[in-house]
Design a protein that fits this description.
With about 375 residues, the protein is mostly helical. Helices cover about 45% and strands about 10% of the residues. The longest helix is centred in the first third of the chain and has 21 residues.
Length: about 375
């Protein structure tokens, strides 16, 4: 190993040969010779451990986070710009100077406890899920051998708030003019806020009564057929060759938090978020008898678990399910469904064996027999 300076460079460089005789050169990135020598010794040791014991060097968390961020920005640019980058920025600052191997079970549990004191359980779940995804990506892509072991955090009870038709009418009436069509369209299509605000006229086909949300949260495009009111909403706004569908004074809508909150207050509606308009769309479909799988297709949910929150809204769903048993002819609970057990012994022959019925005990009811059958 040798530490030296290259001509015209103020920084120290390091060179060494591995066990196969291959020569390595690397800049230390520092003008301090002692620091450069320390770094050089560290690099040589890491390479030795990797070569002889298959042990990878420590991976800084910042490096794993940056690698993950680049992939997310490339594969999900819209969601990255609106959501992911802000959470990554927080995690990068919170765990500055950490190595990937520092994320032990206890360290993550301490982080969870800390966050639960300041933010909602849902926010903590999203933070820890993102953190775990960063670490798993680094391991999967062979950047580290570390396998994270995270504590289990119970998910909060799913939110099932939706608008009644009467509440919807009040909300639309109280909303600002630019917000009214957006509210109606959200209820009629189930689009997420980012999907609606990013909808371009190029992805609207009024002849076929269909729109397409591009690059949705799960990374896939989703096509939605328009109901009559949704179609009328778009015709009132356009159509246009291109450009965003929902705008304010001809410019993109950056945020609706203030205007939606004002409309909600003026309408006298409590506990309502814009995302609840998406719940309203799904809830109305289920109440109309649309199967959950079809609702999943329209909302873009990837897991049936997400759609099951609406299952109890299906009209007479238990009656339909239980009535399927009627076809088997055994659920009436009446004596007609059972063999004759009248007085006197009778010999019944079948399958080469003789069966004898006994005079029934009067204490044994048909209901009891049915439970034992």
């Amino acid at each position: 190993m040798r530490v030296y300076k290259r001509k015209g460079s103020p920084q120290w460089w390091v060179t060494w040969n591995d066990r196969n005789g291959k020569r390595h050169r690397r800049s230390s990135g520092t003008k301090d010779r002692k620091l450069a020598e320390t770094l050089a010794a560290k690099w040589v040791q890491e390479e030795f451990l990797n070569e002889h014991f298959g042990k990878k060097p420590e991976l800084p968390f910042a490096e794993a986070l940056l690698h993950y961020a680049k992939a997310q920005k490339r594969d999900h640019p819209r969601h990255f710009m609106t959501k992911t980058r802000y959470r990554l920025r927080y995690l990068g600052a919170r765990f500055e100077g950490w190595n990937v191997s520092d994320f032990t079970y206890g360290a993550v549990q301490a982080f969870i406890n800390e966050r639960l004191d300041t933010v909602s359980r849902g926010s903590v779940l999203r933070d820890t899920a993102l953190l775990k995804s960063i670490l798993n990506t680094a391991r999967r892509e062979d950047m580290t051998d570390f396998t994270p072991n995270f504590p289990r955090l119970k998910a909060p009870k799913p939110r099932n708030r939706w608008l009644t038709p009467e509440e919807e009418a009040r909300l639309v009436a109280a909303a600002a003019p630019h917000l009214r069509p957006l509210i109606r369209f959200a209820v009629d299509t189930g689009g997420r806020r980012s999907e609606l605000l990013g909808l371009d006229w190029q992805n609207v086909n009024l002849d076929q009564k269909r729109i397409t949300f591009r690059d949705t949260k799960n990374g896939e495009d989703r096509s939605i057929r328009l109901c009559q009111r949704a179609e009328m909403t778009l015709r009132e706004l356009g159509p246009k060759p291109s450009g965003l569908v929902f705008t304010y004074k001809g410019k993109p809508i950056q945020s609706i938090k203030t205007s939606f909150g004002r409309a909600r207050e003026q309408a006298g509606i409590d506990d309502l978020r814009f995302h609840d308009l998406r719940h309203t769309f799904a809830s109305r479909l289920v109440q109309a008898g649309v199967p959950l799988y079809e609702v999943m297709t329209l909302t873009g949910h990837k897991s049936l678990e997400m759609a099951q929150r609406y299952a109890h809204l299906a009209p007479d769903f238990q009656e339909r399910a239980i009535s399927a048993l009627d076809g088997f002819g055994h659920n009436s609970g009446t004596s007609e469904n059972y063999p004759d057990v009248g007085s006197g012994a009778k010999s019944l022959k079948g399958n080469g064996a003789a069966w004898v019925t006994r005079t029934p005990d009067p204490r044994i009811t048909n209901a009891m027999l049915y439970q034992l059958s």
